[in-house]
Amino acid sequence: MLRRAFNARVAEILPEPTPLEPARLLSARRGQAVWLKREDLTPVFSFKIRGAYNRIAQLEPAERERGVIAASAGNHAQGVAFAARQLGIAAVIVMPRTSPSIKVEAVRRLGAQIEIAGDDYAAAAAHCEVLARERGLVTIPPFDDLDVIAGQATVGLEILRQAPRELATILVPIGGGGLAAGVATVVKELRPEVQVLGVQVEDSDAMAQSLARGERVRLEHVGLFADGVAVKQVGVHTFALCRRWLDGIVLVTVDEICAAIRDVFEDTRSVLEPAGALAIAGLKRAEREGRLPRGLAVAIASGANMNFARLGYVVERAEVGEQREAIFAVTIPERPGAFLAFCRAIGERNVTEFNYRLASRSEAHIFVGVEVSGRDEARRLAAELAAAGYPCLDLSDDDLAKTHLRHMVGGRTPDVRDEVRVTVEFPERPGALLQFLTQLGARWNISLFHYRNHGAAFGRVLCGLEVPPAERDELRARLDRIGFEYADETENVAGRFFLG
């Protein structure tokens, strides 16, 4: 791999290395130097251009005549389209119907022919295989190809040339593993004392699970927020290389990614996409866990193809991810003056959110966000409220509360019966919501419904249905047949507190 990386033809398309620059605010907070490798500054705003160009540039003349094809919802699509245009090769990109319009239009502007197929990457990839066979096109894989990996490995070579000698750690995002495999291989071959850590989202940790088991694992479901790394199974080559060379993997949450996006914005005034900020989130988590040695840490800012509609969600979750906001469900007595007394118990702390509605004549349930300095202060505040006679639940780590309940707190009704609450993920395309409701049918009354568009490929719904206990197996069977990912949230503690 080292020889392949040194011979990669990436310089033809990136004649100057992408910048490696200090993150001064992050460095000050850490007390040690943090530098960012700015792969978000390539012509397609992501590192994917490297592997795509290197793979296509290796094609024989006869293969170039046939043209290339790739399946992707985003960055790989743009990398292939850009590289093919530069080399004068016809390109077909298969994209799922859920692809954000900003990415579809970017690929179209680069001159590639677009085929829309399926609701997710797996469906698009299957259609891609069919078209490749029918039209004789050359498939350009997104990560599991040695030339693609070698192209991504040039990121590691550039870091070694650009960084001061005291370089101690490099943090790399992992989806399918192409970037991590390439960077880890060349760095450990040339500077074995430098630690290379991969970073994954807790709900898309195929590489972490595979390394733990010693074999490739296929996930049944992956999280959707960081779509650039939402891979159910890593590659054969990428797994073997990461297993040999990677020093470890750090897992992070969605909230931590949102906080990292804000961190990079504050340092650079650039907005990374969720997958692009993954390494920065991993750096901060590894620092808290004591996994970073002293010395310079480099985090790869891997992409900035951010859908504008997602920014509101990022802002909403960043404070919790930075542990500077705590979210509580609090019970107060329903009597005159109780609301004022509770506010006095909070004191002069900054209240970031307050949701309240009369729930009964004896007590009220409040959803409140409070600015804190960290988890220790949040725990102290919870203890203070309990001591003052206000039972409370810390919901800072409850995804249902942060995604749905904070937007719909409105009291409980005595009229609902036998309610089952489920969260459902469905593809963000015209007709998907109608399809879900149609296939669900009119057998059970819908008692609750909440949906917000976060600008992602998949939407998330919280749905309440009045289902007698004897019919709940039938409901589960119906949901299984519909085929959308779902989870039963009936026993979720935040849901029971505000909705049950």
Question: Per DSSP, what share of the residues sits in E-state strands of 2 or more residues?
Answer: 15-25%
Total helical segments: 20
- Number of strand elements: 18
Q: What is the highest CATH level, the class of the largest domain?
A: Alpha Beta
- Domain unit count: 4
Helix/strand/pairing category: alpha/beta
Query: Gyration radius, to the nearest Å?
Result: 25 Å
Helix amount: 40-55%
Q: Using the coordinates shown, work out and report the CATH topology of the largest domain.
A: Rossmann fold
Report on the architecture of this protein.
The protein has 20 helices and 18 strands. With 500 residues, it is α/β, with parallel strands linked by helices. Strands 1-2-10-7-8-9 form a 6-stranded mixed beta sheet, with helices on both faces. The chain has a 4-stranded parallel beta sheet with strand order 5-4-3-6, sandwiched between helices. Strand 7, helix 9 and strand 8 form a beta-alpha-beta unit. The radius of gyration is 25 Å and the shape is globular. The mean pLDDT is 89.
Q: Which structural traits does this protein have?
A:
500 residues, alpha/beta, Rossmann fold, Alpha-Beta Plaits, six-stranded mixed β-sheet
